[in-house]
Design goal:
It is a single chain. By secondary structure, this protein is α+β, with helices and mostly antiparallel strands. The protein folds into two domains: about 260 residues, Gcn5-related N-acetyltransferase (GNAT) (Aminopeptidase), CATH 3.40.630.30; about 60 residues, Barwin-like endoglucanases, CATH 2.40.40.20. Helices cover about 25% and strands about 35% of the residues. It has ten helices and 17 strands. The two termini are about 20 Å apart.
Length: about 350
């Protein structure tokens, strides 16, 4: 039984263990004791029942192997990016240059520094222990966040983004950083990535180039990897694109990984999910279909399970699932097909 739930203080040791294995480019989960403890505290504040609109709250979920009593993955949401600390990206624009006398027209792509101060919401902190990357657990970890949004839409912006990890090797070498970032920041990619993950954004504002960067002037091998994802991030990108998110011509300022964006009301898991009341439980299920199932509470729970759906108002869930999810007959649930 694998259960997704909000993080709590008792999860710190497991969170630190996971942070040590994320590798380079997962900036929202750095291996830093003070930061991780504050990340837990910030998430606990985010789940305050009194929150009624997005103000930058952070929600961090963990995936727990109930049998082993072990945290094996994380996923997060930020209700609104920007605010006091702006959110930086490079926006790729195509510019046209024409000389009528010579009948020459050229089109070049240019990186423009873009800052966001007022949204949108963001998917973040997705990481799953490699030994658990099977049986749909990546889908559970990623998509269950949308069920939380569906249950509490007023806590989030109308649009949501996800900044995907770009091309970085196991030693922390980023081709894009070496040709662009290092020139202005004068430090190695892992150092800048780590500082950004800790929330130190002032150095970005102070050191980033203020003028556009012409992509055609960059080395060929760098141009090729702009807006490309890390090989281990490809499944995550494919999954979010299936949900209705799409590349928005923005890339990360450090590794040039792409940003995906979508309207929350058009996300498959949100728009297709149904809210109903549990009729009861069953010891065995004959349904071959797997569903994402969640409660409808701020003390959120989600899992993958089968359901016996007789009618929209007649739904039975496995007894073991009901126990783990703390769901009784008469409880509200939300469900959607896993794929």
């Amino acid at each position: 039984m694998m259960l997704l739930r909000p993080i709590n203080d008792a999860d710190y040791n497991d969170l630190k263990r996971l942070a040590k294995t994320t590798g380079f480019g997962v900036t929202s989960l750095p291996d830093d004791e003070e930061y991780l403890k504050e990340k837990i505290n910030t998430s606990l504040r985010g789940f305050d029942p009194r929150v009624s609109k997005p103000r930058g709250e952070s929600y961090l979920f963990v995936l727990e192997d109930l049998k082993k009593k072990k945290i094996v993955g994380t996923s997060g949401l930020i209700s609104k990016v920007g605010g006091f600390d702006p959110y930086f990206t490079y926006q790729i624009k195509e510019e046209t240059y024409t000389d009528h006398a010579l009948a020459i027209t050229t089109k070049v792509k240019v990186l423009h520094l873009n800052t966001k101060h007022d949204g949108p919401s963001e998917l973040c902190s997705l990481f799953l222990d490699e030994t658990y990357r099977k049986n749909g657990l990546g889908r559970l970890l990623s998509l269950s966040r949308f069920l939380f949004v569906a249950a509490f839409p007023k806590r989030f912006d109308k649009q949501i983004i996800c900044e995907l990890r770009g091309v970085v090797d196991d030693k922390g070498h980023s081709p894009f950083w070496e040709s662009v970032g290092r020139i202005f920041f004068g430090t190695a990619y892992p150092v800048a990535d780590f500082l950004s993950g800790l929330g130190h954004k002032e150095f970005i504002k102070n050191l980033m180039p203020k003028y556009p960067i012409y992509i055609s002037l960059l080395p060929k091998d760098v141009r090729k990897i702009i807006a490309q994802v890390h090989e281990k991030t490809m499944p995550a990108r494919h999954l979010l694109e299936q949900e209705g998110m799409a590349y928005n011509n923005e890339v990360d300022i450090f590794d040039a990984g792409p940003t995906l964006m979508g309207d929350l009301n058009k996300i498959r898991t949100i728009s297709s999910s149904k809210k109903t009341i549990v009729s009861g439980t069953t010891k065995t299920s004959t349904s071959p279909t797997l569903y994402l199932l969640s409660n409808d509470k701020i003390d959120f729970r989600a899992c993958i399970t089968t359901l016996d759906i007789q009618t929209d108002s007649q739904i039975l869930i496995p007894a073991a699932v009901a126990k783990a999810m703390e769901i009784d007959a008469g409880s509200f649930i939300r469900y959607v097909s896993l794929k």
